[in-house]
Each structure stands twice: as C-alpha cells, then as structure tokens.
Automatic annotation (TrEMBL):
PROSITE patterns xrefs: RADICAL_SAM
Stored NCBIfam families: KamA family radical SAM protein
Domain Radical SAM core as annotated: residue spans: 178-401
Family classification: Belongs to the radical SAM superfamily. KamA family.
Taxonomic classification: Bacteria, Pseudomonadati, Pseudomonadota, Acidithiobacillia, Acidithiobacillales
Known cofactor(s): pyridoxal 5'-phosphate; [4Fe-4S] cluster
Transmembrane helix recorded as keyword: no
Transmembrane stretches, start-end: none
Entry keyword set: 4Fe-4S, Iron, Iron-sulfur, Metal-binding, Pyridoxal phosphate, S-adenosyl-L-methionine
Protein's name according to its UniProt entry: KamA family radical SAM protein
InterPro entries, sorted: Aldolase_TIM, Lys_aminomutase/Glu_NH3_mut, rSAM, rSAM_sf
Gene3D superfamilies documented for this protein: Aldolase class I (3.20.20.70)
C-alpha cells in the first residue's frame, strides 16, 4: 500500500474508529509528527471496507482460470502480441477457449446470436479471462461483446442505420464535420475488440451482414484530403481521432497524424480515442513504441501550447485490474491526460451503485469520468438500451458522490445528427411512449430531434400503442406538439 493509500484509509475495530494513527501512517517520515496529535472526534459515521472497494485492483493471475491460458505466465499474458494473436475472431475460436467452462446450450445460443449480429467478433484474452463463465448470461463483459440469440429483442421501429447521420456531415472520406469548431477524423475501421453496441457499425460491421455506408482506410495517402480540409477551415480548433480505434494505428502513424494536425496553426486540441485501455491495457506497458509515440505527441502539443489527450471507454469495474491501474499510472506519470466516456448499458452499469463505483475507481487511477452516453439506437442491441428516466435517476445518484470535476456529464447523442445534449435538457419527455424531444440550435436551429426509449421497458399503455403501427406517427406528433416545437422540421 502506498503512503497516499495509507493516509486515506481509516482502521476500524468492530466498526469503531481507532483513536490513534496506524503504525503504517506513523512510519511515514513526513507524517511522524501527527502521532502526537489528538485525533478529533469524527462527525461522519465510519465507512466499511466495501465503501473503499474502488481502491482494490486484482493483481492475481486471473487469466489462468481459462484452461487454454492455465500455464501462461504473467510476462507472456502482458505481451500485447499474445493478446492480439490469441483474440477470438470466430465462433470456432471462441468455442475452443470457453467450451470447458460453459454448457453446450450456451455455446449454441452464442452461435445463433453471432449469426444475427451486425458486428464482427473480436474478443481479447484479457476480457475473456474476466468474464464470470459460471453465470455468463448476466456478466457485464459478456453482455457488451458476445451476443446470445435468446436475449435479442426486435429493433425499435424508429431505429435507422447510422442513426447519428455521421455520413451526412462527411465533407470528405474519413472525416465528419458536425460541430462548428470540432471535427472527427476516422483514419481506420478496425479495433482491438468489437463492441456489440458500436454506433459506427455502419462502417465496422461485416459486409455480409449489411452493406457498409463507409470504409475508413488506414492509408496516409487517403488521409491527405481530410488533412487539407482541416487546414482550410480556420474555425476548426478541436479534432477527435477515432475510427475504428487508434490502438490499431502503428506508432509511426500516431506520430504522422499528431505531427500533421499539430502543425495546423488553428488546431488547438487533439483527442486520440481508444477502447484499448479497457480491453487490452497491457499494450500501454509492452508496446513501448506505441505508448512513447502518444507521449511524444502529448509533449509536442504542450510545447506548442496545445492540448493532446487520450479518450477511452470503460463501462464496468469488471474491466479494471491491476494491469489497468499500472497502465494508467504510466500514462499519468508521463503527462498524458486520460478521460473516460461510458455508455449506459442495461445489465452492465444501469444502477446507481454500479455507476458510482465505476466513477470512483476511474478517478482513483487518474482517469477523469467525462461522459456517460444514453445508449445509441443501434441495430441488433435493443436489449442493451435503457430509458432516459433511468439515466436521470443514476445521474442524481452520481452527482455529489465524488468531486465535481470527476462527475461525468450524462448525454444523449440525439438521432438525426443533432449531436450531444445533456440528457435532462429535453424540451419534452413522455414517459408513457418513451419519446424525448431535443433541440440543438448550434447544429441546426430549424430541426427537432427525437430519442426513443426501448419499448419493452415502457408502461403497458406505451407498449400497446407502439404495437399498433398506425399509432406511430401520432406518437411522434403528440410529443413534438407537447414540446411546442411543431414549427420545426423533424430530423
């Protein structure tokens, strides 16, 4: 335990606070003088060890519960090349790894689910080792990455492919320019793992499942148009580099992108986006070329008075181990700011305790909780979505549970291309039909944007109305009228 951890921890005997400092505290040279100070009587009730669980990180050889990894050493498991080589990319590979741990019925359920899924399968050994295979149906990691047919629900009738309409705001391939001063650069369409709920499944998913709307090539030659566009638009100050996932860019291409964008005078902020720290944290520790490239670009930006950060995506404390803590500490010590963007997912983090624990653990390892997204309306994952009302209640629980700068903003990225809105900033919300109505004046002041709760979670009256297709237009019209926005165009 570090000196900071020791200072933060209070020792208890039979739930009563000890009226003296622990020997561990007294042994810290800078704190020895406190041993002579009478400890004031506490105003707060003593906390249990459970309340400090966010400070605990699994440092065991947890991967050895998987028969195929039973003899894999820590050194080998931490090698990012082992993670890439042994990731499950097909149902056959997945069966080989987990068949001894689950029932044949579950494997068949997975196979049937993958046949209907809009996304490819890619599942890292790190994640696979963290799933509770004794209860895979309810495991928060399984839910995010491996579909089971028995849990799938029909898509909402108002769902559309590319619901965020990113391609409508793409002036050139590989680039989205929606907000006035911000652009989204998409230099590749591959990831270290594939999330079932990916809002960009229109470009990441298998072409066998649907025709792709776009393809983002990891080719510097094809990036030149995007770079030229960014250089030609003096209002753009902020660029997000995503995809796909920047974890899958080589170190040389991290440098190329960073150096090119930082050289454009009006660009002041870069954000490299990656799910990687949550699904393969060891890459930061063992792919030193990649990590150093990121660190060097951060340093280069700082020397030019510009900010470069890493934005990542943890959804559950189940994804976090001591490997994660060590990786995040490495970035922190080298001056890399890391911010987190979660998605609110049914069965993963959709209760106050789960979200509070996630926010506290991220904060403890110097990852700033930044956003919690209302689950996008994505094809094939209806059972993962939650209601807007659920987000409102969870936000109330999270706010005040930790420092304000570590309290995430809960947002809805509204369908139709309106961008991110505070989840509670709707003009109207019908909890019966599940329709929330938003405006986004900075994007388009003439349009109104709608988000739809999953029908299965609505009250009986709402479910009954949606079951009648002749009611759909009336449901939408009533919500827009109740918001007083009938004069605007429906996105």
């Amino acid at each position: 335990m570090s000196s900071l951890e020791a200072l933060k921890r209070i020792d208890f005997v039979h739930d009563e606070p000890v009226n003296e400092l622990s020997q561990e505290i007294c042994d810290i040279p800078e704190l020895q003088h406190l041993s002579q100070v009478e400890i004031p009587s506490p105003l707060k009730d003593p906390v249990s060890d459970d309340a400090l669980a966010h400070r605990d990180f699994d440092a065991s050889s947890f991967w050895q519960v998987i028969p195929a990894f039973a003899k894999v050493s820590r050194e080998e498991f931490l090698d990012h090349r082992f993670q890439v080589k042994n990731s499950a990319k097909s149902i056959e590979q997945l069966k080989t790894l987990i068949a001894p741990l689950v029932s044949p019925e579950f494997l068949q359920d997975v196979e049937n689910g993958l046949e209907r899924a809009p996304m490819n399968l890619r599942f890292s050994p790190y994640l696979l080792s963290l799933v509770d295979w004794k209860n895979p149906y309810d495991d928060p990691i399984r839910i995010q990455f491996i579909p089971v047919a028995s849990r799938l629900l029909p898509d909402h009738p108002k769902l559309s492919f590319d619901s965020l309409h990113e391609q409508d705001d793409a002036p050139v391939p590989n680039l989205v320019h929606r907000y006035y001063d911000k652009a989204l650069f998409l230099p590749l369409d591959v990831c270290p793992v594939y999330c079932r709920f990916c809002t960009r499944s229109y470009s990441i998913g298998p072409e066998a499942a649907h025709g792709k709307l776009a393809s983002f090539r990891a080719s510097p030659k094809e990036w030149q148009q995007a770079f030229a566009y960014l250089a030609s638009r003096p209002e753009i100050e902020d660029v997000v580099i995503s995809g796909g996932d920047t974890y899958n860019l080589s170190a040389s291409r991290i440098r190329l992108i960073g150096e090119t964008l930082l050289a454009i005078p009006h660009i002041r902020r870069l954000r490299f986006a990656s799910k990687g720290p949550a699904v393969m944290p060891m890459k930061i520790l063992t792919d030193t070329d990649w990590s150093q490239a990121l660190i060097d670009i951060v340093d280069m930006g700082r020397q030019r008075g510009k900010e470069v950060a890493l934005h990542t995506h943890f959804n559950s404390v189940n994804e976090i181990t001591d490997i994660t803590r060590e990786a995040m500490e490495h970035l922190f010590k080298n001056g890399v700011t890391v911010r987190n963007q979660s998605v609110l997912i049914r069965g993963v983090n959709d209760d106050p305790e789960a979200m509070v624990n996630l926010v506290r653990q991220l904060s403890y390892m110097n990852v700033q909780p930044y956003y919690v997204y209302q689950h996008d309306m994505v094809k094939g994952v209806e059972e993962m979505r939650t209601r807007v009302s659920t987000s409102l209640e969870i936000e109330r629980a999270v706010r005040g549970s930790t420092a304000g700068f570590n309290t995430p903003t809960f947002v809805t990225d509204v369908p139709g291309g309106g961008g991110k809105r505070d989840v509670h900033s709707y003009d109207y919300y019908d909890e019966i039909t599940g329709v929330s109505v938003y405006r986004s004046p900075a994007v388009d002041e003439e349009k109104v944007y709608l988000y739809f709760d999953p029908i299965e979670l609505l009250p009986e009256e709402g479910q009954r109305r949606w079951a009648d297709s002749s009611q759909h237009d009336a449901i939408v019209r009533e919500a827009v009228e109740a918001a007083g926005l009938s004069h605007l165009t429906l996105a």
